[in-house]
């Protein structure tokens, strides 16, 4: 890693970028930066702050045909985990913030999430279909330890016997094993752990405020031992950074009890292209151009790819090699393991929060 003085430890993005929806933009003048350096002042606020919001709706219909979910629920917008490649960064611009450091430092909290979910599940027009927690940002990011909104949401899903899936990088999900066990008894839960690498050094610079690899592997074991269906997403695959780890990673998660594995290939849409480029030139200057060129080759000559059907898996020789490696890995290490569809049949009996006798 570069020892450049301008590298911000503990953060993914290294700067804020202009919001495409803002009419105005700003920049720091050299004389101001020199003054701050001479005075020993930090010219930007580095602390994470939370901002209370009160949403009108909480369950979102997913219209994209290639993300594998119909509905999602995100109790938080922005994510302190700071994963440099995160596609959700662009969504922070709709709130008037930058997709860069703002995304990691300004976390919007949906204070009425539980009430809105309960209203949705009680609606006569709602027919049960799995709702995914963290379709956009991680429901177990650090602030969840204090606020416990995700835990209360899970209690609501249990109360109404409604199917729910979780995607997370955080071992904090272990805190809620008591609720997850009850949901699992009726096949109402599946957990997807996101693990991008087996290397702690790679994890630290790609995903600076996520749980360690050791804790995530331990979480797979704990969930599997509790008979809670757990799978792994190796997402994203980034050429020359973690693309060599497919076989050993699938073997490791299989040994820990995972039922299946999925993947995506990195894509750098919108503001993320500039954020990632700035980051990799500071963290991996020796291979930055190689990695960027390889990403462009996967996506038709561009870092950006919004085409349904190709954006998640890429195209070309590298994409095909990744596809074949996962095919072989599943056959070798995950053969005959089954992840059952979640149970959507119980909810109608619990529309009012308790079982109907007649």
UniProtKB/TrEMBL annotation:
The keyword Iron-sulfur applies. This is PA0069 family radical SAM protein. The keyword Repressor does not apply. InterPro entries: Elp3/MiaA/NifB-like_rSAM, MJ0683-like, rSAM, rSAM_sf. It comes from the Bacteria. Residues 65-302 form the Radical SAM core domain. Keywords: Iron, Iron-sulfur, Metal-binding. Pfam families: Radical_SAM.
């Amino acid at each position: 890693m570069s020892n450049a003085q301008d590298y911000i430890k503990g953060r993914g993005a290294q700067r804020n970028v202009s919001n495409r929806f803002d009419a105005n933009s700003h920049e720091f003048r050299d004389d101001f930066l020199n003054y701050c350096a001479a005075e020993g002042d930090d010219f930007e606020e580095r602390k994470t702050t939370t901002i209370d919001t009160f949403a009108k709706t909480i369950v979102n219909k997913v219209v994209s045909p290639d993300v594998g979910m119909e509905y999602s629920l995100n109790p938080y917008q922005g994510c302190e985990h700071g994963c440099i490649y995160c596609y959700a960064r662009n969504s922070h611009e709709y709130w008037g913030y930058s997709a860069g450091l703002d995304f990691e430092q300004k976390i919007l909290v949906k204070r009425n999430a539980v009430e809105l979910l309960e209203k949705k599940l009680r609606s006569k027009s709602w027919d049960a279909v799995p709702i995914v927690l963290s379709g956009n940002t991680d429901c177990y990011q650090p602030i969840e330890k204090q606020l416990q909104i995700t835990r209360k949401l899970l209690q609501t899903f249990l109360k109404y016997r409604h199917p729910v899936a979780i995607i997370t990088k955080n071992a904090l999900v272990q805190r809620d094993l008591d609720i997850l066990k009850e949901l699992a008894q009726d096949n109402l839960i599946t957990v997807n752990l996101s693990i991008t690498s087996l290397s702690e050094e790679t994890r630290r610079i790609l995903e600076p405020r996520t749980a360690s690899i050791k804790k995530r592997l331990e979480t797979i074991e704990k969930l599997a031992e509790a008979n809670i269906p757990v799978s792994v997403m190796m997402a994203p695959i980034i050429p020359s950074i973690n693309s060599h780890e497919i076989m050993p990673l699938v073997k490791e998660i299989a040994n820990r009890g995972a039922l299946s594995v999925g993947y995506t290939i990195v894509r750098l849409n919108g503001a993320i292209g500039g954020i990632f480029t700035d980051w990799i030139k500071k963290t991996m200057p020796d291979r930055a151009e190689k990695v960027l060129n390889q990403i462009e080759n996967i996506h038709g000559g561009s870092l950006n790819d919004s085409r349904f059907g190709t954006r998640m898996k890429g195209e070309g020789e590298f994409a095909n090699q990744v596809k074949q490696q996962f095919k072989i890995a599943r056959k070798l290490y995950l053969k005959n393991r089954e992840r059952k569809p979640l149970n959507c049949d119980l909810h109608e009996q619990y529309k009012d929060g308790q079982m109907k006798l007649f």
